[in-house]
Design goal:
mainly alpha
Length: about 280
């Protein structure tokens, strides 16, 4: 809900900040945009990290028979998920996403704004934010590869701890390892070539595509290879897996169709941005 709120105030601010005689004033909407730019990436990164570091909840499917409160899953603390920000690894990924967003913004400015002064300023910020990104992302990624995870036995549906679970998934499914390495290399290539060669402005294409590959791999690791994609710190057997949380054949069919559509949506997004950016932004 907090993540949703930050994007609501962003949308409202973009709509009304330029209106004359608006109720709250430009300063208030600029503050809203700052809140969105700061909190949204950090909270999103922290939320994704809980897919590996867990949360405090339990699942009781017998509650479906309760006509008054048919609630299957319940939080086990009054913070209702906000305790995620107390886990340093969650915060680390949140800050990594924050700095990565700024890195991609700098690369976009360099590619799309035809102004020598702004490009020079963006390159300076690119270096600073790249250092911040690497400081938080690399330790998180190394910890992910080496940490234990929860695995489900497809036959018995029993969930147990497995050492080096995510490393085992990368080795069992080599294409995920290739996708991760290609993604990381593309991100670093786009950044480094932009920093080393002042005339190079196409870094956003390499780093942008690399970001998609890297994030996709991280999300796939959360659930593939019989992995609990949302571990429960309160009750191991309540952890969510693809096997136990897919409610029906209809659900699986619908989600498969959605997954097949995703590449077309991504292609449309790329086309829309290409259309908007065919001409460089000038003063």
């Amino acid at each position: 809900m907090l993540i949703l709120f930050t994007f609501i105030v962003q949308a409202v601010s973009y709509e009304y900040i330029a209106h004359q005689n608006n109720l709250l004033g430009r300063g208030t909407y600029r503050a809203f945009l700052f809140v969105n730019g700061l909190l949204a990436p950090i909270l999103l990164g922290a939320a994704v990290s809980t897919l590996f570091h867990g949360a405090q909840f339990i699942v009781n499917k017998e509650n479906l028979t309760d006509a008054i409160m048919p609630v299957v899953s319940t939080w086990q603390n009054p913070l209702h998920g906000l305790e995620a920000v107390a886990n340093l690894w969650n915060v680390a990924l949140g800050l990594a996403v924050f700095f990565l967003a700024r890195v991609l913004a700098c690369l976009y400015f360099i590619n799309n704004i035809d102004d020598a002064e702004l490009r020079a300023a963006s390159r300076k910020q690119l270096l600073i934010n790249t250092v911040g990104f690497l400081i938080f992302f690399l330790p998180w990624l190394i910890d992910l590869v080496l940490r234990s995870g929860l695995t489900i036995d497809p036959a018995t549906k029993v969930i147990a701890v497995e050492s080096y679970k995510y490393l085992h998934t990368l080795l069992a499914l080599p294409w995920t390892l290739v996708l991760l390495l290609v993604g990381v290399v593309l991100v670093l290539f786009g950044i480094l070539k932009t920093l080393i060669k002042p005339a190079f402005i196409k870094g956003i294409w390499f780093s942008g595509i690399g970001t998609i590959f890297t994030v996709l791999t991280v999300l796939l690791l959360a659930g593939l290879n019989h992995t609990a994609y949302y571990p429960s710190d309160s009750d191991m057997q309540s952890s969510l897996t693809i096997i136990t949380s897919s409610s029906s054949q209809f659900t699986l069919t619908a989600m498969t169709i959605v997954s097949i559509i995703i590449p077309f949506v991504l292609a449309y997004i790329c086309y829309a941005w290409w259309t908007l950016d065919r001409e460089k932004i000038k003063a």
